[in-house]
UniProtKB/TrEMBL annotation:
Keyword entries, A-Z: Membrane, Transmembrane, Transmembrane helix, Transport
Region forming the signal peptide: none
Organism phylogeny: Bacteria, Pseudomonadati, Pseudomonadota, Alphaproteobacteria, Hyphomicrobiales
Protein name per its UniProtKB record: MFS transporter
Ranges for domain Major facilitator superfamily (MFS) profile: 27-438
Species: Methylobacterium oryzae
Amino acid sequence: MATPTTPHAADAAAFESRTMRKVGLRLIPFLVLCYFIAYVDRVNVGFAALTMNHDLGLSAAAFGLGGGLFFVAYVLFEVPSNLAMERVGARIWIARIMITWGLVGIGSAFVTGPLSFATARFLLGAAEAGFFPGVILYLTYWFPKAYRARIVAMFMVAIPLSSFFGSPLSAALLTLDGAASLRGWQWLLIMEAVPAVLLGVAALALLPSRPAEATFLSPAERGWLTDRLETERRAAEASAAHHAHGLAAVWAVLASRQVWLLAVIYAGSSATSNTLSLWMPQILKGFGLSNLQTGLLNMIPFGIASVFMIVWGLRADRSGERIWSTALPLALTSASFALTLLTGSLWMTLVLLSLVLLGNYAIKGPFFALATETLPPAQTAAGIAAINTLAHLGTGAITSLIGVLREQTGSFPVALLPLCALTGVGCALVFWIGRHQPRAATVGATPSIARG
């Protein structure tokens, strides 16, 4: 029998598929572009460093410290930013974040030494704080839980794509050295920050806050999606009626063993993403390559990872399985890091770093699906923000440590060993979660979605 907001039951699957396809096509490409630019602005200093470090007198330790300070600010401002988004609405707050980080990114082109470089990185972290967990939360306003692993994977594919497309672009911008009395690295930072400001303005027009505002859906589609999400929300609230709220809920999240375990797991992935985006151009340049050759070779691992990330996310949703889908990529990442100690070959290093990134980006979709399905429903929003925040504390520490180890040992493989250890520990913790919360390994996809 038909419902007021859907066609006949025989057409329900087609109706659902059509509705979710509309939502995905309307929101995901724009959000991916925004995150792409955000990540380019976060990691383009890795390419700028090829000439900037000499100009500013930055040692490896000073460069690593600046990279770490980005995450200190990110951590300090992330949860308040996410709470502000709840108050003012996703559209306005996401736009605010993008415009702010674009302006700070432009200003970063005019640093003059280690102190101003460190300050600029701190301010950029403060400006970007809240964007990623804000978007993850925003996606829960639009996508039922059965879709979230693939949607998160599609959104987060912007991370490897930022290095895939950004590497040759950054190398090309370095050739503008001397134009208008600016160094090439200054042109790089300016030109790659301007799109953030433009996209921030565009977000005000292109991002509706909730499905009820979605003029691109028909009334029946809006009604069905609103009802579906509301049904899931009520079910979650009913199962979480005994949980605390308000400030007590925040303390409950911080006291949650589950949150801390998930944060340690994600810290390995987050640190790997950010560390290699910052340091890989220098790793490759160390083999005697030109800036352009470095840019072209840097594309390869990130391009492979971009494709596999989507494939793995789709597989995780179709199977509904989360534990192995999260643990296996972490194991591959850890093992590949360890093997870099055994080679001094450019090509073997490139193969191993490709495997590192293939595993590292494959984890993204399944991990956040695992997190949203294992956290108590009343803690999901704050829990996601806390996991991302705590993980970035580890990322900041590792980024700074790698700079120190690189300066002390002169070896990038040795400097990367903390990442090998952290991803290995993360893999073990995923299995621990699977053993102690077996439900988490199987939820996530309804039978019809799993077959789709």
